[in-house]
PRC-barrel domain-containing protein (Noviherbaspirillum aridicola), 306 residues
Amino acid sequence: MQSTSIKKNLPLILIAPLLIAAAFPVLAQQASPNTGNPAVDAQAATRMNVPGGGRDMRASEVIGKEVKNAAGETLGDIEDLVIDIDNQRVSYVLMSAGGLLSLGDKQFAIPSERLQPGQRERDPLVLRVSKEELEKAPGFEPDKRPNFSEETYRGAVDRYFFKEERGRYTPSGARLMSAEQLIGKDVNDRAAHSAGEIEDLVVNFGTGRTYAVLEVNNALNPKDKLVALPLKAISFPQRPDLDLLLNIDRPLIEKARGLADAGWPDVNSADARKQIDSDLARLQSQVKSNPGATQTGRETSSGASR
């Protein structure tokens, strides 16, 4: 009987490894955000398991969104996103208390992986945290927003939500910035000529991956052009009032194809994702550690910029 059973199931036994092998490249591609930091990439691969977390979203459209729990009850609204610019990922969402939470004007920093996008763009976000857990979470007053680059408050948030899962903490020493403050920032080349401005940031709560979309200031092309830009391609001064600097040669951006539509394409469509992923990988490979070594496209034969 056992021999007969094996013979009947032999085709399935032979086919199964082939199916797994065929699926593996797709799975590997989905779980590879490629931030450039192996530890963060490994963590992001785990975060891909978050239900519905594979959808990219514009930060400007996430800010202001309503947040509900799994039962559909309102918990509050998204006030801002906190971006880990060193590791190119969204780390926290800042949420104001409301609805079920009778906590006045208190705000919370929630690890971004605890949020799940809705099925449609206009749907509220779903927070996978209980009301009781949220009410006891470390909070702050709106006019006393902490510096997330300092580990005092950030460490308290990580310890509260992740307990002993230290591998999921924000990396020590990481520099974090507000998405609201980054959107609209001017970006210059090394000769202080405007290269454009940050039109928006695109975030993914499943992988954590975050990239910028630059509205290119291209004198040779009067049409507005949007280019997906890795955060590693930008230098962020310590002073928030200063403009950002390119870490790549400006002509690479000016010659880039840009996003497909005159406006914003569906960044989750297969064609858009393929192009965006290709552009991000190509530009990331051209990042220079010293912004002063980048080319502006206006160099003279002596190497100086005009």
